[in-house]
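Thread: quick sanity check before group meeting

JM: Hey all, I'm pulling together slides for Thursday and realized we never actually wrote out the predicted structure for the chain we discussed last week. Dropping the sequence here so it's in one place. If anyone has concerns about the input, flag it before I start.
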Amino acid sequence: MKIAFFGCYGAFDHFKIGGTESFARRLATGLIDQGHRADFVVYGAPLPHNSLLASGIGIYYHTDLRAAFHSLQESYDHVITMYMRPRDRLPYLYFRKSNRQRLAFHQVYFSWPDSRIKREAAFLDARLYPFNGRLFCISPRIYRKVSGWSNRGVLLLPPVPEDFFLDPTSKPTHDKTRVIYIGRTDPGKGIEDAIELFTRLKHHPDLELEIHGYHGPQRSSVRIHQWLSEQKELRYFPSQYESYSPEVEQNVRRILRDTDILILPYRKLSSTIDTPLLLLEAMASLCAVVTRPMGDIPLIYGSSPFLLSRSGGIKDAIPSFLQALNSLRHEQERIFHQNKKLAFKDKDLTGLLINYLS
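JM (edit): ok, ran it. Output follows.
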């Protein structure tokens, strides 16, 4: 099979650091390993450019939508749609209609917008003119939503590579409990809550606290990054990576392997993909995760004393957090069995994808 992961430049790019891109990169690599062709086809790029990566993934940048459509017509059997700009959805609808005998068109739904109007708009073009392929949903609630009006929905969690997964006997132990925040220095990601928590716990004798962050272009993200870089009370490790490389992924794997508790205090899930990739990577690495029970997180992560309350502030959670430290080994065992039930290894999900494309 010849498969194109298709989307708009700026929102979808092989070299971006993000859950959407990791989802496509890992599945594309798995498809190539199974003998298929998998490329990134991107429209709206500043300049046209083609390249073939060492992984076997082809990268095709097109400046305009028509050139991208021509590439899809000439070269592929399946088009997996990642993101289209709203103004491009109508031309894409007509393109799908004109080429549905030649191409199988699929859609991936990554987000659950906060606004109900935006949620309905996200599904509108598929309801006006249905895709002739599958509608891949990365969270159970998106799958339930899509299943209400289509029988083509498929639950496909974000894939995590095999080398992230640990069993309880291989998880490193430490003299002090290592509590880590990883992520963008963005208010929506909850970095301010992490700072507050770490500030209150910085003198605890049994804890080792670290913040591993990178900043986006937003003013608030840059401001928090600069403050963290200048202060001396908290251990801050700014990432120097501005784009994806295999080294970036391996660095995250290394950090998570040596992390006992990961802090993911999302303020809104719309700041990330609806099943956060870092949540699954942390679970694979047997990290207890302190996070808010938003969306399907309680369903994915399971019942745990490390889940924050829906209404309380981060400081209100400190007593229960400290008490939960005593159950850390039990939590790792629980997560290990939860991972087996969810089955989100990249090879498993690539096999599932191939079955549905076939």
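AS: nice. The longest helix spans residues 19-33. The two ends are 8 Å apart (CA to CA).
JM: adding both to the slides.
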